[in-house]
Design brief:
By secondary structure, the chain is α/β, with parallel strands linked by helices. Helix content is 36%, strand content 17%. Strands 1-7-6-2-5-3-4 form a seven-stranded mixed β-sheet, sandwiched between helices.
Length: 218
């Protein structure tokens, strides 16, 4: 039972980063752009589009800091459960308000860590078209700047179905954007304030994705 409440550790996330580097650079050819935009210290949220199954590991292996990702509970099965916990990742139940996951995610930010979030909630077109409110809550409550991240595989073209995995050894572009504050500066966490923050975030993430596609030609 203790595994269900054990807080993720920076050391675990650092191990996860080393594993991500080995796997992602071994299986694909990542090209990282703008990593210098990620604050070198202090709480930060990396908001990533989600079109491929490798998006999380790819960010873990290319971000300049260890990342604690919020990952759906369905991934924590069999031996993957202790492994994901051991590398500092957070299990979240997407069907309800998972208070344990919320507490652990805020703890990561309070300790000055980097929290990775898929704002869309699940894998899809990866275009930030539909955002959940969780990102705004963590950004405002945790007083953490948001860094938009675009992960673009080699097969993204308008009108084509995006496969779960890019071809092995293909180039994958990871483009980091400028950090920004999601809140309005008042610190308010009312429903209206969070809805406004969500719209603000969506605008910035969508604009970054468009810039990243122009930059990379994807």
């Amino acid at each position: 039972m203790t595994g269900a409440t054990t807080a993720p550790t920076p050391r675990g996330a650092a191990v996860g980063r080393r594993i991500g580097i080995g796997l992602m650079y071994g299986l694909f050819r990542p090209r990282v752009l703008g990593a210098w935009r990620v604050p070198t210290a202090g709480p930060v949220i990396l908001a990533v589009n989600h079109a491929h199954n490798i998006d999380g590991p790819m960010l873990m292996g290319t971000a300049p800091r260890p990342v604690h990702f919020l990952i759906k509970k369905e991934a924590f099965v069999g031996p993957l459960d202790p492994f994901l916990r051991g590398i500092g990742q957070l299990k979240v139940d997407r069907t309800t308000v998972d208070r344990t996951a919320v507490t652990q995610a805020l703890g990561v930010l309070e300790n000055g860590g980097a929290l990775g979030i898929f704002p869309e909630g699940t894998r899809g077109e990866g275009d930030f078209a539909s955002l959940r409110a969780g990102l705004a809550y963590f950004a405002v409550r945790g007083r953490a700047p948001v860094v938009p991240v675009a992960v673009l595989g080699s097969t993204e073209r308008a009108g084509r179905l995006i496969p779960a995995l890019p071809p092995l050894r293909s180039r994958v572009d990871v483009v980091f954007g400028d950090a920004f504050d999601a809140g309005d500066g008042s610190g308010r966490r009312t429903r209206k304030a969070l809805d406004e923050a969500t719209l603000r975030i969506q605008g910035r993430l969508t604009a970054h994705l468009e810039d990243a596609r122009r930059l990379t030609g994807r």
